[in-house]
Amino acid sequence: MDHPLSHSTSQPLDRGWTFGRKVGSGFAVTVGLTIVIGLLSINALRGVVSSKDHVINVNAQILIESEQLNAAIERKSSALRGFLFARDEAFADDVRAARAEVAAAIARLRAAVVTDEGHRDLDQIERVEAEHQRVVEHIFAMRRAGDDTGAILRAYQAQLAPKRDDLDGLVKAFVAFERRVLQAASQTASDAATRSIRALVLMTLVALTLSIGIAFFITRALTRQVGASVGRMQSSSAELQAAATQQATGAKEQATAMSEITTTITELLATSRQISESAQRVTQVAQQATTSARSGDTTVDRGNDAIVGTRKQIDLVVGHMLDLGKKSQQIGGVLDIVSELAEQTNILSINASIEAVGAGEAGKRFAVVAEEIRKLADRVAGSTKEIRELIDDVRGAVNTTVMTTETGSKAVDSVGKQFADVAASFKQIAALVSTTQDAAREIELSTKQQATAVEQVNIAISNVSRSTRETESSSAQTLQTASQLATLSRDLLRLVRAEA
Amino acid sequence: MKVADRMRAEFDRAFASPAVPPVRDGARLLGIRVGGDPFALPLADVLGLHVDRKIVPVPSSVPTLLGIASFRGALAPVHDLRLILGYPARTPTRWLVLVAGATPIGLAFDAFEGQLAAPSATQEPPPPAASPTASATARASALTRGLVQAGDVIRPLIDVAAVLSAVGGRPAGPPRNKER
Q1: Interchain contact B105–A (C-beta under 8 A)
Q2: How far is CA A376 from CA A17, A79, A344, A371, B11, in A?
Q3: B3 vs A351: CB contact, 8 Å cut-off?
Q4: Per the domain annotation, does B4 fall within a domain?
Q5: Phi and psi of B151, rounded to 5°?
Q6: ipTM entry
Q7: Residue A405 lies inside a defined structural domain of this protein
Q8: What is the CATH number of the domain that holds A52?
Q9: Taking the CB of residue A60, how many other CB atoms lie within 10 A of it?
Q10: What DSSP string describes A18-64?
Q11: What are phi and psi of A348, to 5 degrees?
């Protein structure tokens, strides 16, 4: 069965952009726009501030310096009038100080003024002030000389007043010019500020529009993405539900199988123990068999010695029997002679009795003797016949005995060889029994290890059985969770898509 | 050893028992074997019993004549009793008896079985021939004169006179050139 989540995880999201990346990108664009706007604002503000500072520091300072020039000129006039009035040299010093102030003010203004027109005005002021000074020096000389007050007043009125008026007019014109310059600079700064404000407003509008667009696109993409994912999640959760159902069934079957396996393993354990006990008994029997085989080996050796002795005895018996056969043959030869003698005796007795019949009465007693002799001969013949039969029997018996003994000897030889084979077999048996003993010991050990292993397997199977039961319960939980997940994915889909 | 003891005791007893006179009321016979069959020969007709006697063969037209032998300085013809009685003669014989006739004649046979004492000779005719040796038995029955029982064996009693006539009724002997 395919895993329900496998295809959904393997399938990449739209264009490979993750949720966080998209949101982050949107935020990054917005933040970038904000930073751009901020930088532009700072730049505009700095331009406005610098233009305003320029207005304040330069143009306003020029105005202040102009006022100070004006004041210095006034102080010079006042000190002049004081000298004229009191002819005190202190006032002359004041005039000189005032004039130094005027020069200093003009020098500062020259440093501050940037326009050509301003510089021309300052040159003109400086020139007129120098003329005024010459007039002032002339009047001072007149006063020090003690000239007539009227003449001095006239000279004052005629020479100094116009210069003073020219100077005031120049200074006023300069101040008015600089005031215009100040106004123009102020107006320029205000215009720059207004432009900056407009630019900022425009940038803000652009950023707002972009942010709205990005937000719209992100929302749309995310809605589509999340909707698709949630849809897949819904189908996956349905598959997961089915899989969990199958898993629960399988776990139940597995639990049943595990209990059967446990029963079988228990039986196997009992069998293993029985095998171990049997192997132990086999080892004991093999030990006894080894001992018996060793004693059997000794017995076989003794039997072999006995067979060698028997072989010698049989050879002796055969020799004696052959001697007996020869003696019987000799007896037979003697018996032949006896038999022939008896036969001859018989013939003689018969012929004697025939002759006795022929001799008539005189031969009767001889006939009796002949008859007796014949009887004796008959008996001897009969006895000889019996003896011959007996001798034949003896010879037959001897022959049979010799043959039997030779057969026995061969049998003993064969038995000897077989005994050697038996001895070799005994040694082999002893070795094999020893091997069997070792093997039985190994079997015993292996079976004990097997029994231990089977016990461990039994424990493991019990654990597995418990795990299976736990798996069964967890499968039920998984099923429940899958159902909840299905419900949750439906809710989530409803959240993402209103029509869902 | 028991047999030997028995034989020794029998032998000793034979010497210890008193002498018994010969039987008078019965004929004395010689038990012989011809062609494997037992026969009896009256001792009264016998002149002597001999064994391993040298027989010199002579040419003769008589098929039963084996040759001639010397008996106490006298020559006598020796006939094969087996051929006379109709038996085949396959092996040489050791034994012969000298029977009394016009002239003594030797009869050679296979084996001598001993001297017999038959109480009486029966005159019953011999049994009809029914064996493979029917011709021999028929011929032998013509040359016997009844049966005698000695011990467990019944023997035909050879008629010596008939035998002699059967041998002697023939010409005494053909000339040598005719024989050749």
Answers
A1: no
A2: 154, 231, 12, 9, 9
A3: no
A4: no
A5: 70, -130
A6: 0.70
A7: no
A8: 1.20.120.1730
A9: 15
A10: -HHHHHHHHHHHHHHHHHHHHHHHHHHHHHHHHHHHHIIIIIIHHHH
A11: -60, -45
What is the strand order of the sheet B105-109 is part of? B46-51, B95-99, B105-109, B74-80, B65-71
A381–B51 C-beta distance less than 8 A: no
Task: List the domain range (segments joined by +) for residue B94.
Answer: 26-179
CATH, residue B126? 2.40.50.180
> How many distinct structural domains can be found in chain A?
1
Decide the pairing of beta strands B65-71 and B27-34. unpaired
Binary contact (A381, B114; C-beta < 8 A): yes
Terminal-residue alpha carbon distance, chain A: 30
Residues recorded for chain B: 180
Say if B64 falls within a structural domain: yes
- Domain annotation covers residue B1: no
Residues 6+ apart with CB under 8 A from A52: A186, A189
Q: Is A35 on the interface with B (CB under 8 A)?
A: no
Cα distance between residue A132 and residue A138, in whole Å: 10
- Rounded to two decimals, what is the model's pTM? 0.40
Q: Calculate how close chain A gets to B121, using CA atoms only, in Å.
A: 20
SS3 sequence, chain B?
A: CHHHHHHHHHHHHHHHCCCCCCCCCCEEEEEEEECCEEEEEEHHHEEEEEECCCCECCCCCCCCEEEEEEECCEEEEEEEHHHHCCCCCCCCCCEEEEECCCCCEEEEECEEEEEEEECCCCCCCCCCCCCCCHHHHHHHHHCEEEEEEECCEEEEEECHHHHHHHHHCCCCCCCHHHHC
B7 — contact with chain A (CB < 8 Å)?
A: yes
Residue B30 to residue A350, Cβ atoms within 8 A: yes
The answer as to whether B66 is a domain residue is: yes
Provide the token pair at A328.
């019987």
| Host domain of residue A177 | 17-237
Number of domains in chain B: 1
| CA atoms of B118 and B27, how far apart (whole Å) | 6
- The answer to the question of residue A368 being in a domain is no
Are A350 and B43 an interchain contact pair (Cβ–Cβ within 8 Å)? Answer: yes
Q: Measure in Å the smallest separation between the Cα of B59 and chain A Cα atoms.
A: 30
Tokens found for residue A15:
């264009």
The residues facing A413 across adjacent strands are none
Judged by a CB distance cut-off of 8 A, whether residue A371 touches chain B is: yes
Q: Is residue A82 situated within a structural domain?
A: yes
Q: Is residue B65 within 8 Å of B82, Cβ to Cβ?
A: no
Contact A125, A110 (CB under 8 A): no
For residue A372, what is the nearest residue in chain B, using CA coordinates? Answer: B19
The Cα A485–Cα A475 span in angstroms is 15
8 A C-beta contact, residue B29 and residue B110? no
Q: For residue B20, count CB atoms less than 10 angstroms from its CB and return exposed for 0-12, middle for 13-18, buried for 19 or more.
A: exposed
pLDDT tens for chain A, 500 residues long, are: 444 444 444 444 445 677 778 788 888 888 888 888 888 888 888 888 888 888 888 888 888 888 888 898 888 888 888 888 888 888 888 888 988 998 998 898 888 888 888 899 889 998 998 888 888 888 888 888 888 888 888 888 888 888 888 888 988 888 888 888 888 888 888 888 888 888 888 888 988 898 898 888 888 887 887 778 888 888 888 888 888 888 888 888 888 888 888 888 888 888 888 888 888 888 888 888 888 877 877 887 888 888 888 888 888 888 888 888 888 888 888 988 988 888 888 888 888 888 888 888 888 888 888 888 888 888 888 888 888 888 888 888 888 888 888 888 888 888 888 878 887 887 888 888 888 888 888 888 888 888 888 888 888 888 888 888 888 888 888 888 888 888 888 888 777 766 65
3-class secondary structure, A334: helix
